[in-house]
Amino acid sequence: VEAFRSEYDQVTRRPPALSDLGSVAPDSPLGRVLRRSKTKRAASIRDETRVAKNTVAMLKTKEDHTPAEPIEDIEGTLREARKSADDSAIAGALERLLDSDLPSDRRAELSFELAELLYYELEDNDRALEWLLEVRKLDPTGYGARPSILNAIEAVYEERGSIDGRIEILKARLEAAANNDLADTYRLLLAQLEWEERRDEDAAKEWLQSVLQRDDRHEGARRLLAEVAADSENWTDAAEHLRIALSVAGDGLDSIELEKRLANILLDRLDRPEDALEHFAHTQQHAPHDTSITDGIRRCYAATGNWREYLSSLKEELRLLLG
After folding, report:
1. Which residues lie below 8 Å from residue 77, measured CB to CB, with a gap of 6+?
2. pLDDT, tens digit, for every residue of 260-275?
3. Kind plus residue range of the DSSP H or E element containing 154
4. Whole-angstrom Cα distance, residue 296 to residue 286?
5. Residues near 190 by Cβ (< 8 Å), separated by ≥ 6?
6. Which terminus of the chain is more solvent-facing, meaning fewer CB atoms within 10 Å of its CB: N or C?
7. How many CB atoms are closer than 10 A to CB 256?
């Protein structure tokens, strides 16, 4: 007992560590106690593990043999939820019903109802997306092609910043487009995404060219092509695209800004001050108090050495400032 106590006190004088216990001689009194304790603990762990495995197996067996909820009962719950107009209860019943074995057309119909409910009424976008995509998979040309489904999917993808997802949905819209004008709108949106989000010039141009094949003077396509050309400093092409876009643009502030942009490219990038002056003068008729136009006109006079008109323009601006 004294030998055991001495060795025990030596080990427990400070917080025990593995190194302390490992240094105990196996044949010493404390070593024999520790060895027996370790053996008992190992046996206890084996017993606990066996009990846990048996419990899991029993629960799994019980789960496997638990009868599925009758479809008739779930449909009864769904009818009651619809009577009470409880959207959450309706969604829950629909999800339980969709866990059952249903015909494909019935599954598509219920998935469509659940997807719309989750997105438009409950505003649960994460759960909604799962069922929105399920509708697309089950019935891509029927329920899955409806505007409410495509709009919701595109909105969720935009919220998440999923460019690939948005492009996929726009392509689906393009396939289901009711007329050529709508199809061109989707092609233009695809080109815009490819250019603005991916900076993929080739892909953007491909979509834009498909628009121009039907309408060579399409304003939106020409505007975007001008932007792409300007980004690569292809100023001749940029000016040509803007010229064509301007020829079909209507009146208003937007067309004035378009013509100002064309005039600035002609003056600053292509060294064509005479052509630029013509466009600046035209825009001034519609926006006489726009100082950027007046400045552009004077820069054209300076570029051509027409200092008389340059001074005349300054006097006119001074007169306007003085009232």
Report:
1. 89, 93, 96
2. 999 999 999 999 999 9
3. helix 147-160
4. 15
5. 167, 170, 171, 174, 207
6. C
7. 19
